Amino acid sequence: AQRVTQPEKLLSVFKGAPVELKCNYSYSGSPELFWYVQYSRQRLQLLLRHISRESIKGFTADLNKGETSFHLKKPFAQEEDSAMYYCALSLRTGNQFYFGTGTSLTVIP
Amino acid sequence: DAGITQSPRHKVTETGTPVTLRCHQTENHRYMYWYRQDPGHGLRLIHYSYGVKDTDKGEVSDGYSVSRSKTEDFLLTLESATSSQTSVYFCAISRTGTSYEQYFGPGTRLTVT
Predict the structure, then answer these.
(1) Are B31 and B49 in contact (CB under 8 A)?
(2) Cis peptide before B8, with omega less than 30 degrees from 0?
(3) Mean pLDDT, residues A86-106 taken together
(4) Nearest CA in chain B to A46
(5) Pair B93, B27: CB distance under 8 Å
(6) Cβ burial A36-54 (10 Å sphere, 16+ → b, else e)
(7) CB-based contacts of A52: which residues, under 8 Å, 6+ apart?
(8) Which residues are CB-contacts of B102 (< 8 A; sequence separation ≥ 6)?
(9) Which residues of B touch A9 (CB under 8 A)?
(10) Which residues of B touch A102 (CB under 8 A)?
(11) What residue of A is the nearest CA neighbor of B4?
């Protein structure tokens, strides 16, 4: 069963426009959710974790348990935000970590 | 980068040959993982390890085996490489404790011709 769904494979926005990358998950318990970013031909980097409620590079993500969503948002996109973004879910054990299929974000100058 | 390295970084091999990829970590983490990354599929777990000599299968384990004889090294072996195993392979570790987020190595780009 697909634990994490990212409905958009590709997303293009203009520089300065708001951006939202969608992530929905399926799990009835209390998961941990993360966003990872992968710049061109680089390793995946942890961007956000929901438990810390932090803002990194202007990105935020709120866990909505009612809608089982963890969408990633940024009010003003920058060209350097162009990358592949992955939503991920951990079931709080060492062997259960699930990734979505990723969304490729392109910020148009 | 959590002290994770992978070798080789690039490899081209022929169908039917065995291939071994190495993941090395310097921070003594218990959990290690091998993923493959393919367009349209995201990251898929191949195998993982929860300690020395303790390994288990992931979602796409067919055609792959792993070994972990030391805490710092986790090896992925393609027994007999096929073209469908052309992919980018990422190793990851999990920092257990308060959170289970994973940290990734730089990846190995494998091409099977």
Answers:
(1) yes
(2) yes
(3) 85
(4) B103
(5) yes
(6) bbbeeeebbebbbbbeeee
(7) none
(8) A46, A88, A97, B33, B92, B93, B94
(9) 40
(10) 42
(11) A43
Cβ-defined contact of B101 to A34 (cutoff 8 Å): yes
> Least CA distance to A92: which residue of chain B?
B100
User: Which pLDDT does position A78 carry in this prediction?
Assistant: 97
Block residue for tokens 């769904």: A5
Instruction: For residue A22, give the amino acid letter.
Output: K
CB contact at 8 A, A36 and A90: no
Query: Could you give phi then psi for residue B33, rounded to 5 degrees?
Result: -140, 150
Read off the amino acid at residue B38: D
**Cα–Cα distance for residue pair B74/B56, rounded to 1 Å:** 12
Q: DSSP characters for B71-84?
A: TTEEEEEESS--GG
Q: What is the pLDDT of residues B21-78, one digit of tens each?
A: 999 999 888 889 999 999 888 899 999 998 899 999 988 999 999 999 999 999 999 9
For residues B40 and A77, the model is more confident at A77
Residue type, A101: T
Contact between B25 and B2 under an 8 Å Cβ cutoff? The reply is: yes
Confidence band of A105 (pLDDT split at 50, 70, 90): very high
Which chain A residues contact residue B104 at CB under 8 A? Answer: 43-45
Is B73 buried (19+), middle (13-18) or exposed (0-12) by CB count in 10 A?
middle
pLDDT band per the 50, 70, 90 thresholds, residue B1: low
- Whole-number pLDDT of residue B82: 97
